[in-house]
């Protein structure tokens, strides 16, 4: 009875101290506490191996080859050395070799490489992303770039994209000309789309910047569907077709995976030491993931190794703690030679599945980040989360049953109740998002896998692999992150100043079309942008304007040019390289021709133009609002006003002037 709380014990006759608790409740409490304690004595749950004599064969063989401990240690280090030499030589040769005649050695690039940054990050008129045109550049893409998706919303014209590949443009169907891609497309995904490189093995190519392009079609090729953009963008690229000699080594991740698997399996089969098995698996697998199979988006090996070792040291410490409280209690019980194959198959198979998360769960489960924003917006995320929760509940309850049978449930309840309280404290912190990364989930759940049953081997191997993948790829990301770090607007309007954007209404827009132009739709569009009271309340200094997703104007309250932004449309002139906006003080008819010809070659035919607006605080732009569209026929479709639920599709005609 000493294990029961005082109030659950039977009080002596005549003692009134705990009589205020009803007797049925005390009896129910005693029964519950007795059940939680489990059977007395606790049960030994160690599973019986299948074909134990057969599983002992690797250890027996190794004992004949290396009968003494020093020999075993020598063989182990020889295996480590053989793995490292093969792994490192293949990696360095792959990174440093390759040649394309007339272009030289291809430069390695990451899957996220592009020529243009989001919103106004290329500066006014895109000057920070120049040059707009250039000769060929030889590049080399890694494997598995096709699965890369956008995790922070990207806008193309008046369309917003998220949770999908990002390629804009491509080869027109039936055309013999090379496909033209918008500069903000992911270069390697565009190369896969164009058939220049393979998603499975990566590859090399030559890209050339083509300057401005008048439009970009949506094309489905090689398993990717590109995004359409019906207007001019100042920077584009295409891939050079070449028949010269090409030497391009394939991405080494699959050959090196075979080397890694071989090394870890050999350690597992021929050693009975839990520490050697656990730390060999951890060390070799984290090296493969962090440098080969799912490395950070870095171009050079020195940068890659620098980041890898910065993450390896703290990861090794955490792995050691997990070994003490989860790995060793489990692996010591299955360290007999009769468990060699069971341990190898049940532990290592899920460990590789978890470590290769970018090929497994990341492609199977439509949840990229466990945040409220992503769960609300990513297609299929809520259903997938519901299924995952059901599976986790079943696994947790089954493990809890076995833990109770082993007489350890009280200890684990204390641990997980403490963790639960900490998470509940972090959850409601203002302007922060609780984010359970998969490496954190692995750290939380691994202690519950120390019971020596077959499912524990499977779960612990999987969780170790997820921990390795999370830390090697992303580092020790914070348990709570700001919305900006997650690509979200930090709060609803009224919190972070940048979550609000200028309201562009029909009354603030005037369209004046040219009367004598052969193409209806050319002329000026004028925006009256200042909202003095609202801007003062938000504490902002000015407004930034994107035209066709390129920043073309910045205006500040303390400038003399006033609140008016005017854009002159003369076909697609001015959309290529220079800013053709007209200041309020300038004559409405002035046009900066930028050396372009007046010949009728289609350049004067108007295109749809897309305008987006954001507040400025200093040189920092807030969130750009939805796009308003100046249609080619001169009509104006206003953007959705802040706070409205639906887009206002009314076409503006009231402030339309012909003259």
Q: Would you kindly provide a written description of the structure presented here, covering whatever features stand out?
A:
- A hairpin with a 2-residue loop joins β17 (542-547) and β18 (550-556).
- The chain starts with 22 loop residues before the first helix and ends with a strand.
- 36% of the residues are buried.
- The radius of gyration is 32 Å and the shape is flat.
- It is an alpha+beta fold.
- 36% of the residues lie in helices and 15% in strands.
- Residues 490-494 and 578-599 have low confidence and may be disordered.
- The longest helix is centred in the middle third of the chain and has 31 residues, at 301-331.
- It has a 6-stranded mixed sheet with strand order 2-3-8-11-7-6, with helices on one face. Strands 17, 18, 21, 22, 23 and 24 form a 6-stranded antiparallel sheet that branches.
- It folds into 4 domains: 6-37, no CATH class; 52-89 and 253-481, no CATH class; 98-247, Ferric Hydroxamate Uptake Protein, Chain A, domain 1 (Beta Complex), CATH 2.170.130.20; 497-658, Sandwich (Immunoglobulin-like).
- The protein has 16 helices and 25 strands.
Provide tags for this entry.
659 residues; alpha+beta; Ferric Hydroxamate Uptake Protein, Chain A, domain 1; 4 domains; 6-stranded mixed β-sheet; 6-stranded antiparallel β-sheet; 16 helices; 15% strand; flat
């Amino acid at each position: 009875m000493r294990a029961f709380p005082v109030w659950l014990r039977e009080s002596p006759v005549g003692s009134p101290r705990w009589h205020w608790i009803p007797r049925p409740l005390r009896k129910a409490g005693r029964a519950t506490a007795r059940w939680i304690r489990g059977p007395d004595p606790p049960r030994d749950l160690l599973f019986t191996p299948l074909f134990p004599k057969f599983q002992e064969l690797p250890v027996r063989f190794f004992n004949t080859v290396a009968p003494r401990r020093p020999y075993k240690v020598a063989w182990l280090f020889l295996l480590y050395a053989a793995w490292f030499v093969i792994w490192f030589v293949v990696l360095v040769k792959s990174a440093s070799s390759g040649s394309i005649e007339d272009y030289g050695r291809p430069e390695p690039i990451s899957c996220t490489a592009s020529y243009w940054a989001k919103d106004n990050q290329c500066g006014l008129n895109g000057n920070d992303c120049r040059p707009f045109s250039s000769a060929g550049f030889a590049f080399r893409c890694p494997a598995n770039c096709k699965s890369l998706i956008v995790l922070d919303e990207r806008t193309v014209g008046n369309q917003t994209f998220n949770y999908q590949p990002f390629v804009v443009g491509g080869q027109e169907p039936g055309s013999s000309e090379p496909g033209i891609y918008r500069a903000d497309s992911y270069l390697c995904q565009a190369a896969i789309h164009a058939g220049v490189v393979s998603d499975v093995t990566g590859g090399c190519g030559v890209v050339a910047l083509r300057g401005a392009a008048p439009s970009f079609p949506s094309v489905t090729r090689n398993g990717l569907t590109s995004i359409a953009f019906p207007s001019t963008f100042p920077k584009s690229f295409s891939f050079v077709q070449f028949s010269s000699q090409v030497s391009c080594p394939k991405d080494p991740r699959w050959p090196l995976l075979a080397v890694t698997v071989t090394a870890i399996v050999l350690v597992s089969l021929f050693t009975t030491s839990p520490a050697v098995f656990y730390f060999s698996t951890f060390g070799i697998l984290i090296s493969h993931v962090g440098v080969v199979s799912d490395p950070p988006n870095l171009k050079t090996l020195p940068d890659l190794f620098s980041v890898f070792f910065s993450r390896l040291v703290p990861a090794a410490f955490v792995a050691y703690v997990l070994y003490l409280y989860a790995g060793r209690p489990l692996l010591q019980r299955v360290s007999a030679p009769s468990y060699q194959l069971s341990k190898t198959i049940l532990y290592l198979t899920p460990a590789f599945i978890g470590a290769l998360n970018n090929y497994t769960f990341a492609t199977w489960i439509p949840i990229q980040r466990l945040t409220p924003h992503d769960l609300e917006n990513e297609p299929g995320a809520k259903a997938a989360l519901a299924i995952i929760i059901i599976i986790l509940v079943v696994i947790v309850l089954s493990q809890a049953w076995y833990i109770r049978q082993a007489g350890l449930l009280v200890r684990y309840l204390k641990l997980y109740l403490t963790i639960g309280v900490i998470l509940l404290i972090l959850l409601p912190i203002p302007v922060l998002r609780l984010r359970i990364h998969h490496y954190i989930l692995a750290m939380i759940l691994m202690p519950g896998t120390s019971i020596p049953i077959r499912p524990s081997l499977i779960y612990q191997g999987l969780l170790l692999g997820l921990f390795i993948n999370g830390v090697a790829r992303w580092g020790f990301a914070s348990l709570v992150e700001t919305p900006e770090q997650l690509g979200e607007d930090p709060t609803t309007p009224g919190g972070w100043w940048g979550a609000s954007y200028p309201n562009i209404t029909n009354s603030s827009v005037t369209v004046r079309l040219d009367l004598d132009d052969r193409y209806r739709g050319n002329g000026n569009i004028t925006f009256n942008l200042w909202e003095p009271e609202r801007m003062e309340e938000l504490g902002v200094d000015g407004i930034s304007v994107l035209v066709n997703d390129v920043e073309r104007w910045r205006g500040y309250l303390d400038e003399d040019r006033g609140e008016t932004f005017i854009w002159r449309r003369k076909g697609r002139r001015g959309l290529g390289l220079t800013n053709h906006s007209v200041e309020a003080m300038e004559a409405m008819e002035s046009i900066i021709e930028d050396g372009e010809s007046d010949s009728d070659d289609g350049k004067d035919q108007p295109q749809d133009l897309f305008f987006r607006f954001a507040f400025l605080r200093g040189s920092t732009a807030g969130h750009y609002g939805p796009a308003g569209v100046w249609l080619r026929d001169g009509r104006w479709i206003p953007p959705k006003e802040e706070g409205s639920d639906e887009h206002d599709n009314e076409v503006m005609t009231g402030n339309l002037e012909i003259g």
